[in-house]
Amino acid sequence: MKRPLLGLLLLLLLALPVRAQDAFTGALPGLAGGFADIATAVERLGAAGDPRALPVLRALQEGRLQKAGDGRILLPEGAGLVDAATGQPAEAAGAGAEAVRLNNRVRQALRGALGRLQILSPDPAERQAAAEAVFRSRSAENVPVLRQALARETVPRIRTQLELALAASQLVGTDEAGKRDAVARLGSAGTVEARALLLEARGGNPDLVTAIDVSIATIERTLSLRRAAETLFQGLSLGSVLLLAALGLAITFGVMGVINMAHGEFVMLGAYATFLVQEFCRGIPWLAPWSLALSVPAAFLVTAAAGALLERGLIRHLYGRPLETLLMTFGVGMILQQAVRLAFGAQNREVLSPAWMQGTLLLPGGISVTQNRLWIIVFGLAVLLLVFAAIRLTRFGLEMRAVVQNRRIAATMGIRTGRVDAMTFAFGSGLAGLAGVALSQIDNVSPNLGTGYIIDSFMVVVFGGVGSLAGTLVGAMTLGIVNKMLEPWAGAVLAKVFVLIAIMLFIQRRPKGLFALKGRAAES
Amino acid sequence: MSDGYSPPLGRSKDSSAPVLYLDGVSVVFDGFRALNNLSLVVDAGELRAIIGPNGAGKTTMMDVITGKTRPTAGVVRFRDHDLTRLDEATIANLGIGRKFQKPTVFDALTVFENLELALKAPRGPFACLAWLLSGEARRRIEATVEEIGLTARMHDRAAILSHGQRQWLEIGMLLMQDPELLLVDEPVAGMTDQETEHTAALLVRIAGQRSVVVVEHDLEFVRALGSKVTVLCEGSMLSEGSIDHVQNDPRVIEVYLGR
Amino acid sequence: MSATIATPAPGTTGRLTIRLVLIGAILVLAVLPVLNQLPAESTLHVSDFIVSITGKWITYAVLALAIDLAWGYAGILSLGHGAFFALGGYAMGMHLMRLIGPRGVYGHPTLPDFMVFLGYQELPWYWLGFEHFPYAVLMAMAVPGVLAAILGFLAFRSRITGVYLSIITQAMTYALMLAFFRNDMGFGGNNGFTDFKELLGMPLNTDNARAVLFYASLALLVVAFLACTRITQSKLGRVLVAIRDAESRVRFLGYDVTRHKLFVFVLSAALAGLAGALYVPQVGIINPGEFSPGNSIEAVIWVAVGGRGTLVGAVLGAFSVNALKTWLTTVAPDLWLFALGGLFVAVTLFLPRGLIGLFAKAPK
Amino acid sequence: MSTTSLTFTRRAALAGLGAALAAPAIRPAFGQGAPIKVGVLHSLSGTMAISETALRDTVLMMVEWINGRGGLLGRKVEAVVVDPASNWPLFAEKARELLQVHKVDVTFGCWTSVSRKSVLPVFEELNGMLFYPVQYEGEEESRNIFYTGAAPNQQAIPAVEYLMSADGGDAKRIALLGTDYVYPRTTNRILRGFLNAKGIGNADIMEEYTPFGHSDWQGIVARVKRFASEGKKTAIVSTINGDANVPFYRELGNQGIKAEDIPCVAFSVGEEELAGIDTRPLVGHLAAWNYFMSIKGAPNEELLKLWQAHIKNPKRVTNDPMEATYTGFRMWTQAVQKAGTTAVDAVRTAMIGQKLMAPCGYEEEMLANHHLSKPVFIGEVQADGQFNIVWKTPNAVKAENWSQFIPENANRRRG
């Protein structure tokens, strides 16, 4: 790390083969040592800038790099292995060879080294990642290579990232003017990472303290706005989960007046259906990427069928006795939970997220949102629209509304009310299954999955106004956002307790909820 | 009327002042005007019949008087009390009794117990817990049971009574409440002619001591009451007067009788 | 004739037999701790396990009575009675914790171990007074009672009935559970209170203490049963039934329904609290799990299984469901939930009047 | 009204129940050849079933194992399984039932601290013997319990020391995230004392608790990110329990918290928990245990072979509490053989000093404080859901159940 800058510059610009070979082959044996040796070797390989280092480091990152019993480093190539130092096939290397292992320290060094080596890569995505890696590795030695990269770079996004990386590297260097410049530039970046760098530098640079504080204040202003936006997103995300969990209840409870305490278990069934679809698709390569999409209809059908069975088999005998229905479905819930536990085991089941649902999406303004939650918000709203359409636009929706409004007259008009009841309940149950698909992406897929959501869902429906889809939407989102706004100062538990108390008080004021149905019809 | 029934004591009656006074009462549900600027005055001891087509606002008017529904606008007074501010129980205790269109009695209780609950007595939970049936109270209940013709069924649960018997039981409960104003919603629906006659006679007898407002469709019955008649239509008063007067009122004929 | 006026459904003979059955059952229960003292070889010997578990069931039976009074008679289906039970339990638990004194792990003279641990310097104000037994008993009734009064007043005044009330009470017990789980509340968090040493000078975990607690519970059950019978057979009981069946009609008769419901709800909550207070020293632990909504629903189901609106049914249900549960969790540890869940389904479906409906004529 | 049948039913219910429960108690005392009874007190339903069912299976596997070797003292070993259903008072009831009705000779059971606290008075009153196989907060010592999981000094402190070492990433700021119950609270209190002693002030420690089964970690993970942006290398120490881990790790992965930047070391996340998570985004995050399934060596291979054969699933994982159950069971059989009886007092005496070459590859010894000496491993999560051991203690560490970092313990006798 203490090599003179000039030497490095020369090295990079002239790429003297002899010296590079020396540095590369000299660093290699370190990879066979302990974690500290490996980290040093990686740093040296990165600094050497030898093109041969790149495949070695990549193999190391992917866990494919081998070390032989005699300390040689072997690189997989095709079916066999080659000696990384000589490039010659390693014949009898198999014996005693084992993978070079990583720890976080090595990973950190690796990221920096790969970043430095890839920063001039022709692939923009690689350059972008490299610029980020160099930004994080914050080493003054990166300044020249960053300047070189900046001189060539044309993609604006990567330029911004490179400038930040340069600032970060300058900040830990010795050039006072460069540092001052870096402080100002990091201030305008407005990210937590920049703030971290500035705070880190604050202690070691007494004459820069004022400038740093100004920059930090600038960052704080940006961050506080961004945090508000992110809190809103978190609230919407929680709200969308509540919405999905409650939509089924909005049908079964809101429309039919059936208290289904096994609703949470239907959600759980939906999540297990997702798991089963995934396992089925796992063996069929072309189907595998579609497994989550396939889960949506599958989970709906499975839970809808379970719902229809429950309605026809049990619940219909208890119409007009909501309290008994409540107790009975509690028993059904117990049975379903234990049945799943015996069938699938008590352990969590792994439901993978597709790549497009992983990681963070950076929205304009630097607001970062997690992909899985973003998609769940979209999914929740889409399901809501579909429900709305199903009720308003389809024959089934019409019959359902007719039966709800006046069962006797509907029956005389030739509507088979029993069938409509079963379908309505199946529809609500199917929605619970859809909630299960969504929850499989953020929560445990275990037999207990549903129990955590049942009370919240009931509160959403009652708060929003029984029988009102708009109420369910507004109720869910309000609860989600209020919860997330309270959370930072009240803590996760108290926030929830406060929200529950607030709903209880609200219901006392407006027993019919936010979107109350008024008039005589609502009186009964 | 049997001896068991004794008129209430100590009730100061100013026979000239109206007992019930509605002025400009409107009730709006979701834009639908169930009552529209309705005014009605019932005097002490008066028997008043109210008729009108379905949806004329008869039941809503009862709801407003008994505190079930709050009027959107207007004045509702019972003697000196503003009924729009009081709840059902308080209004009932002021002396307004109501019989519902659909007979509502307590199925799980016997005829005797239904009447016992209605009997005018302290209504608080502790008073109910400490309540002991006095001989006087029992005599009053038994007298009423006789009055409504259910002596043989006194200890049967109300659930097993016939429709007519339930109507009678509810009227009996009204009597036990000893109200100053009785609101009677369709008392003879489902009754035989003989029962209807009997009921009319009973209501006429009651009026005089107290005010009675009867809502009914059965014009023969209304005629038998021989009282002043108010015709409601679309939430407002259409006509008022004797039965002959309203039956000849062209507006009434148009909206109601003529159809 | 007049003798039966106030007491309708079962005739005089029916009542007499019920009484005899009850007295017989109480005697059977009362003799259990005595049989426990017989030598273990004796065929009549009853193990400590039976005594302690029966003692626990008796407190459950009192809880069931409390629920039946509110649900079976006044139609108030509270899914929060587990919370009242637990609050009573916590009040007694606090007393028991105070009695540990310096015998705790850290030997602090006044603070319970968990407070020493969380860095409390002194007892929080709401712990003051719990060293006195009468105060603790009072609180075991008053805290649930006041909570029920507040909740009931708000709900009944707003005419929240039926399933809405059930959902609200369920939210109440859920909120309490979350709150009591927090260690910062000063109630021992998830662990709650355990490791009790003594009560009223008796070391717990002795046959003697078990017998005393057993008899105290039995006495509570008898007194509670008589009190509930008295209430349900009074005119108040008939008003409650009337409210259950046609609430608004009762209002038009001039009854202030809110007050009647509040009276019975508060009474029921206080009774549940007392049951909880006797439960805790017998099981040796109280923790927020008792607030879990499932517990409250289960307790309601005991009443449904036994037969609601009969009082006897509530007691029968509490004993039979819990006995079944104890038995099944041992003989069929993997399958007992099917049996219990199936029972709940079957009873609501086929025995709307509960087990008691198998024997008795239609109740009110 | 059939009152006779009512009477009959009530009496019959009680009597029948009494008979059912008391039946084993009426049998004569165990003679030679009567089976030795092992109680299994793990939740098979409710929230804890997710963790505890595997331990029930482990005990059943060991019972099969010992019977396969001719039993113990020439007698058959029989398991009595009950379901305390994640209900803490029910744990106490079932413990009493096992001891008094089934007369078990030893019990293996409990996972949560509260369940152990609930049964402790019962085991002490009836002089039973419980093997408790889960790492816990310490601050306890009962003559009727053998603790075969780790005490805090055998897990938490070495893990934090590792985080603060050069290899572990030189952490200078620690976020303590936990489920709000006694184990995390105590562990974090001990860690705070330890960190303070190491020069990390309270300003550099963040402590946050969440309820059981907490599923929405967005806010907390975002706050940790912010806490980590104060210019000092930050690490997370997680005592998050059970179900809450899946959503926590998903959020960690999705918010892009990489192990290189903010490593997270967990004390309650093992192979079983990881089985429900996609671990690819989590590679490099850490766990500290006294056993990992990936440990090489004959003792572990034996356990793996037994387990996967017993459970009939060649892919089924093992974890630390299972190893602790296995070790505890084997030590108990050794002690019974040494004592020549299953009588609790004799076995208790024989237990102290028992040694076993445990699957973790070290010889473990039962100490006089009823805890084991155990090695400590730090493992990094790998993409396949296993752990790559990146650090271990050179020797087995003796358990300190009374932590020196809790000031109130200063005037206590050391265990």
From TrEMBL, chain A:
GO MF annotation, one: transmembrane transporter activity
Residues spanning the membrane: 236-259, 294-314, 326-344, 374-391, 422-442, 454-482, 489-507
Keyword Cell membrane among record annotations: yes
InterPro entries documented for this protein: ABC_transp_permease (IPR001851), ABC_UrtB_bac (IPR017779), BCAA_transport_permease (IPR052157)
Any one annotated GO CC term: plasma membrane
Subcellular location: Cell membrane
GO biological processes: amino acid transport
Signal sequence residues: 1-20
Source domain of life: Bacteria
Keyword list, A-Z: Amino-acid transport, Cell membrane, Membrane, Signal, Transmembrane, Transmembrane helix, Transport
Matches recorded under Pfam families: BPD_transp_2
Membrane topology label: Multi-pass membrane protein
NCBIfam families: urea_trans_UrtB
Sequence similarity: Belongs to the binding-protein-dependent transport system permease family. LivHM subfamily.
Name this protein carries in UniProt: Urea ABC transporter permease subunit UrtB
UniProt organism field: Roseicella aerolata
Gene that this sequence comes from: urtB
UniProtKB/TrEMBL annotation, chain B:
Superkingdom of source: Bacteria
Keyword set, alphabetical order: ATP-binding, Nucleotide-binding, Transport
Signal peptide as annotated in the record: none
GO cellular component, one term: plasma membrane
InterPro entries per UniProt: ABC_AA/LPS_Transport, ABC_transporter-like_ATP-bd, ABC_transptr_urea_ATP-bd_UrtD, BCA_ABC_TP_C, P-loop_NTPase
Molecular functions per Gene Ontology: ATP binding; ATP hydrolysis activity
Record-annotated membrane-spanning stretches: none
Stretches assigned to the ABC transporter domain: 20-259
Gene3D superfamilies cross-referenced by the UniProt entry: P-loop containing nucleotide triphosphate hydrolases
Chain segments annotated as coiled-coil in the UniProt record: none
PANTHER family for the chain: CONSERVED COMPONENT OF ABC TRANSPORTER FOR NATURAL AMINO ACIDS-RELATED, HIGH-AFFINITY BRANCHED-CHAIN AMINO ACID TRANSPORT ATP-BINDING PROTEIN
Name of the protein this chain belongs to: Urea ABC transporter ATP-binding protein UrtD
Naturally occurring in which organism (per UniProt): Roseicella aerolata
Organism phylogeny: Bacteria, Pseudomonadati, Pseudomonadota, Alphaproteobacteria, Acetobacterales
Name of the gene: urtD
From TrEMBL, chain C:
CDD domains in alphabetical order: TM_PBP1_LivM_like
Gene: urtC
Record keywords, A-Z: Cell membrane, Membrane, Transmembrane, Transmembrane helix
Subcellular location: Cell membrane
Membrane topology recorded in Swiss-Prot or TrEMBL: Multi-pass membrane protein
NCBIfam families reported in the protein's UniProt record: urea_trans_UrtC
Database matches in Pfam families: BPD_transp_2
Species annotation: Roseicella aerolata
Keyword Transmembrane: yes
Protein name (Swiss-Prot/TrEMBL): Urea ABC transporter permease subunit UrtC
UniProt GO cellular component terms: plasma membrane
Record-annotated membrane-spanning stretches: 16-35, 47-67, 73-93, 133-156, 163-181, 209-228, 262-280, 300-324, 336-360
GO molecular function, one term: branched-chain amino acid transmembrane transporter activity
UniProtKB/TrEMBL annotation, chain D:
InterPro entries noted in UniProt: ABC_urea-bd_UrtA, Peripla_BP_I
Name of a matching Pfam family: Peripla_BP_5
Keywords of this entry: Signal
Organism domain of life: Bacteria
Signal peptide per UniProt: 1-22
Database matches in NCBIfam families: urea_ABC_UrtA
Protein name (record): Urea ABC transporter substrate-binding protein
